[in-house]
Amino acid sequence: MGAVPQIYVDADACPVKDEIRRVVERHGITAHLVSNRGFKTGAHPLIRNVLVGDAFDAADNWIVAHLAPGDIVVTGDIQLADRCLKAGAQAIGHNGRPFTMNSIGAALAMRELSSQLRDMGEIKGGGPAFSQRDRTAFLNALEQAVQRALRA
């Protein structure tokens, strides 16, 4: 059996911290909440609050520098997900949708198109509100990712 996986969370805009805590406690694995703001995590021995500087992509760079193949990254950042997949980690969006080597190219292209449309004023605002269904999908996806990592 390989090393125990760890979870790395791009935490600044992460709406699923409670779900991550539940999976961490169930499996006894460590999660790193990486941000440039910091969060109150209490005295939980398996949840580490990692405070990085304000430099552009500081949290992303810290995550990529510390993860190992088989680890799990939780992020809404498609570019970070791409970097993590290339490093051999699993990457999951906040809505529970896993990023894969097969899907990341299309996701990056859609991100670029959406950015251009926003710049032209063709689309405004963010996506739909985060729902309980999204939380449930995320919890299931994270559980499956941990199971895959533990079997690897």
Can you describe what's shown?
- Helix content is 43%, strand content 14%.
- By secondary structure, the protein is of the alpha/beta class.
- The chain has one domain.
- Strands 3-2-1-4-5-6 form a six-stranded mixed sheet, with helices on both faces.
- Helix 1 runs parallel beside helix 5 (132-151).
- The longest helix has 20 residues, at 132-151.
- It is globular.
Write the layout of secondary structure elements.
Layout: E1 7-10, H1 17-27, E2 31-35, E3 47-51, H2 58-66, E4 72-74, H3 78-86, E5 90-92, E6 98-99, H4 104-119, H5 132-151
Parallel strand pairs: 1-2, 1-4, 2-3, 4-5
Antiparallel strand pairs: 5-6
In short:
With 152 residues, the protein is α/β, with parallel strands linked by helices. It has one domain. It has helices at residues 17-27, 58-66, 78-86, 104-119, 132-151, and strands at residues 7-10, 31-35, 47-51, 72-74, 90-92, 98-99.
Which labels suit this protein?
alpha/beta, six-stranded mixed sheet, 152 residues, 5 helices, globular, 6 strands, 43% helix
